[in-house]
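Escalation from tier 1.

The customer reports that the assembly of two entities below gives different structure tokens on two consecutive runs. Tier 1 could not reproduce it. I'm attaching the input and our single run for tier 2 to review.
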Amino acid sequence: MYDNEIKIGFLEEGEQVIEEMETLLLDLEHTADKKETFDGIFRAVHNVKGSAKAVGFDQLGAYCHDLETYLLVYKNGEKPLTKDVINYLLNSRDVIAAAFATYKKDLNAVFDFNVGSDNDECSDEENSHIEMNTTGLVVAKKATNSNDTSVRVNLQRVDKLINAVGELVVLDSVLRQQCLSSMDQAILKTVEQAGKIIREVQDLSMSLRMVPVKPLVQKLQRISRDTSSSVEKSVDFRVVGEDIEIDKTILDSISDPLVHIIRNAIDHGIEAPEERVVQGKPAAGFLELSFSQEGGKLVLRIKDDGKGLDQQRIIAKAIEKDIITSGDNMNESQIFELIFAPGFSTKAAVTEVSGRGVGMDVVRTSVESLGGQIEITSELHKGTEFTIALPLTVAIIEGMVVKTTQDNFIIPFTQVTETVKITDENLTKGSESGTLLNLRGRYLPVYSLRELLGDKKTDKKNGIGIIAKSARVNFVVLVDDVVGQQQIVVKQLGAELSGFKRFIGSGVLGDGKPALILDLAQLADEELKRVKDVG
Amino acid sequence: MKITQKFLSFIVGAESFAVPLLKVREVIGMPEVTAIPQAPAHVVGIINLRGQIITIFDLRSRLNSSTKGEQPTVIICEMPFGQMGIIVDMVSSVLSADSEQISEVPPGSRAANHDFITSIYSNEDVLILMLDVEKVIGRDMRVAQATSAA
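Tier 1 run:
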């Protein structure tokens, strides 16, 4: 009997190999040095074959053997590499990947390798010769792998570490304050040094959450390729800044929205080749995904040179779907916003490619739940660009500490547009209009944070107004004072408080007291609902 | 065979209660609490316990006891969904109870109305009510959700 642990180990290692193989296959179309890339593919197949046989996946071994035989012809340059060949190889890779997935579920599963190899031309002699050759390569490859020293760590453990370090940072600031009264130079110096190291440890621990975007990019490249060939369009998909590292949680949650936007761009945005030629555009559509860091934010841009968004069609569709009643008085960005409305989809026919029931509204919800924003710019017949701005990490937020009755609350900076000083004079009050603030000629509704949090007795109208934006409206939240700002390590509230949607979580303030993190948009929504119910 | 279980006994108002010791993580003095606006009265708030944020419940108001002990104490309990603190008037002792000392709640008694009282420990003239902390708090979870939905 073969040892199950060895099998599991093989599956884990092998998955990386076949992932690598996919990158190589995709590269094969563009790269100048086809020989080296092809050798890499051959090595990957050979690797899987050898290990599969060794641990007892004989079927998989046999399949890889056949694939290897098929590859050999092209490796030796006996036949030219065509797109069909690459397609065939990509398919074979998928078969292997599917086999891996099946084995992962059940180590003794029987997988149907019903994709035959049509090539048995090589003689055994030649075959063994190549195998001897490649054995050397496999060994060489292993040697380079061992240089890549990395450890897989559970994300929960990393989060625990970040939590503990966050606490250390708070304690450090408390210690510093206590030291101010101390005159002992030696102690002050040591505290200073310890503080420096603590900050370094904090940076290091935060960086543990960061993962490269490469695997995601690779997945998207594959999706772009598959999508464009299934809708018979030709797309030149480029990725800029793929060397960036981003927070693991953000990477995981941004994957589906990106897939959706890219599918949409290829399916709906980019025109068919004939149409493009008529319009004087190159036959191949241009699609670019870029990652960049701008001003403490991670910015993703997805840009195509397709037909762009048709404002008239969007309005017509929105009216048809009862999202709006009329498109009058709407500016460009308001119209583009409509495509994020639930139940909106511009293509009448649901296609296999981008009609999976996941609408653009889900894209926006995912982005906003990460504390990010999404914007569209588009020009008819020129193309569309989506800009997604995300915080660099979700574990730590930049927060504004505000004061109300007795306890302090935290408002994430991402929700705050600006703050203004509010006195009775710049407010208008009416029994029907409620309290409004005149902000540079625009009237915004004012909610008192005390009232939002259920303190009915208050009629205090002086303080600081925080201009915030929810999906629908801009509004002002009145707080007694802004105490300060600090980085907050976000901690989830316990399950017993999960019913309170208005609190995103909690954090520890500089004085060691816990404080709740507010979701202003949610608070305003709840208030609006309450007012509606009463009225 | 005699089965001995350990419990932590404490006092709320005029009565003694106990929870299984295995559920107790630690006992701390009353910490500084941040209140949660619009939460039910017995949800006291959240505390920072060495970097962990823990919700604190007041068992006294849960059990309709109006007394406020001079030195309230928080018992941090380990729950399937995380840690939780309950405020009691005073912690008495660790109790080793044999299985024959634990009996079921007398039907028809007031205690039988509360599903969070699981059984009764009696030894000579001592009577202690055994609490199921999860049930006590489970009710609050539903209350919290209902409040928020309203």
